[in-house]
Amino acid sequence: MDTRVLRYFLTVAQTGNITEAAKKLHITQPTLSRQLQKLEQDLNQTLLDRKQKGHLVLTDAGNLLARKAEILLQLWSDTVDEVQNSNDEILGILKIGIVESRCSILVEKVIRDMQKLYPKLQFDFYSAYSDDLKSALDMMRIDCAILLEPVESKKYFQKKISIYERWGIIVGKRHPWAKRKEISPSELNETQLIISRREIVNQDLESSLGTSLNSENIKGYINLSSNINWLLETGEYATLGIEGVLKVRPNPNLVFIPLTIQKKTAHVLVWRKNSRPSAAIQAFSDMLEEKIKQV
């Protein structure tokens, strides 16, 4: 299948109109219609619902193809760039996924230093929680990712980053514990608690805490604590999290209170095992390691 035809289809999907899409693509409307019909014949699927006059609607198969085509075209574009520039010069776009933590600030400093050395290098940051980052890595939407331990998958190359995050609770300033210096694990069951949706993280926490989290007190699950800022600000809820969250996204109405136990978590740089790290990834890894030594 020609990537050109996929671009045609995506343009039609985005505009919802053959005439407008043809103008954007600088081709005639009959040519575009023929290409779309051939694509449907090749796939043996109807991709566009043509019943609504003046506006095309994607079928279920069309929606699926639109999502996958966008990924395929981006992957093809990235591949062309890498092959054409597979020499000693570092350029193109380095796509980095990263959890919200203190490490993200360090990564920004590394990127700044890299662009001074390699002015043709661009970056694309994708911020999310670990499971989303691993999914993006598997789908080749990002080149590498910085995760928080534990990392359970063996399908990645892993390089430990000695930047540690301290665990505690994050509460609003109206919360009864807001002025506390620390919180003991046994007290966690005395407040309405919102925890990570990652089971492996919760199991690791319970092992370190030496106690089980009471399901009656757990009121919800999250991927990013910034999603519940309003709830925390009410003073009625608390969430287990890392100190670096408020370093990256400062909020004057929230406070971090460390746990009485010394629970710390390291970061890990990961990339796919089925691909050799690019020169950009290798340079990023080396410069990150040097930057950590300066901390």
From TrEMBL:
Residue span, HTH lysR-type domain: 1-59
Regions crossing the membrane: none
SUPFAM superfamilies: Periplasmic binding protein-like II (SSF53850), Winged helix' DNA-binding domain (SSF46785)
Keywords of this entry: DNA-binding, Transcription, Transcription regulation
One cellular component term from this protein's GO annotations in UniProt: cytosol
Lineage: superkingdom: Bacteria
GO MF annotation list: DNA binding; DNA-binding transcription factor activity
InterPro entries: HTH-type_LysR_regulators, LysR_HTH_N, LysR_subst-bd, WH-like_DNA-bd_sf, WH_DNA-bd_sf
A Pfam family this chain is assigned to: HTH_1
PANTHER family registered for this protein in UniProt: HTH-TYPE TRANSCRIPTIONAL REGULATOR YBHD, NITROGEN ASSIMILATION TRANSCRIPTIONAL ACTIVATOR-RELATED
Protein family according to the UniProt entry: Belongs to the LysR transcriptional regulatory family.
Protein name listed in UniProt: LysR family transcriptional regulator
Species assigned in the record: Lactobacillus jensenii
